[in-house]
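seq as requested:
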Amino acid sequence: MKAAVFHAPNTPLTIEQVEIDKPGPREVLIRTSAAGICHSDLHFIEGKYPTPMPIVLGHESSGIVEAVGRDVTYVKPGDHVITCLSVFCGHCEFCLSGHLSICQNPDVKLAPGKAKRLRWNGATLNQFANLSSFAEQMLVHEHALVKVAPEMPMELAALIGCAVVTGYGAIVHTAKVEAGATVAVAGCGGIGLAAINSAFIAGASRIIAIDKDPFKLELAKKFGATDVVDAGNGEDVVKRVMDLTNGGVHYSFECIGLKVTAEQCFSMLRPGGAATVIGMIPVGTKIELHGVDFLRERRIQGSMMGSNRFRTDMPRLVEFYQQGRLHLDELVSGRLAIEQINDGFAALKTGGVARNVIVFNQ
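struct tokens:
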């Protein structure tokens, strides 16, 4: 099969012919339909997060089941599915207490470098996040999948697999935003726009979008933002949010992965507010906060893939899209062939896009 292979930080991905195993017990072979180009993959390409190499990146995808291994009961050939890196075991302490997104069971969530499903040039090729979506086929555990209706457009379904479920889950599960609350979202890429859309669905009274990209700020209004703050014009972002909300927001969401924006999100809270960090802050970076703010019961917390329960969340998100409440069509900036993947990552750096999607068999 054809796959995009990442060899070393800050070097282009190359398109190679890669071999993939047949499905073993509890494994499912998928013909990839679409894969979103996510900023999280770019963190690895830029060397901000370590990973074994060479590797096939990609983790936001949809496809059609081609074959299943022994003991698979959830899907059958022909089923349309969305993948999710939050593969769960279903019986550990995290899963049994409702925290499936942080399941650590190595029987289903193989550590980096442990998967042996891909081969290239006669040697094992590393699999990313137990998925590796930038390839024509994927071989994954059945607990990394959710079935969706065949009428759901696959290039839109792919976005639900990461950006949308992460933004939605951060609003609904991690922070538990109530109707009438005030919300600020720093970073209006795929995850940030999904968070804005989800805050609107949840009934937030004021939703403030913060970004440096005028294109994304304008798009944020279509997703439900009531106010926008241009972080690139020299304005004090925290003061602007404080002025708009008469003292700060109930909830803020950091969707970029930067020290400065994480600190700003904490500073723009009203007493009793909660800041949720969704973005992947580079390894080794420390966040500095003013201790007196904790006496005002301000909180800061992390969110892994939106604390999702994706087997129930994703079908619900499909329904929201079909009802016209979830804006997926507007999220797609372009549809690319796998050979254009490096152009897609270059666009992430220059701005002016929400989400580019690799579409296979165009």
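The chain has two domains: 2-162+307-359, 176-302.
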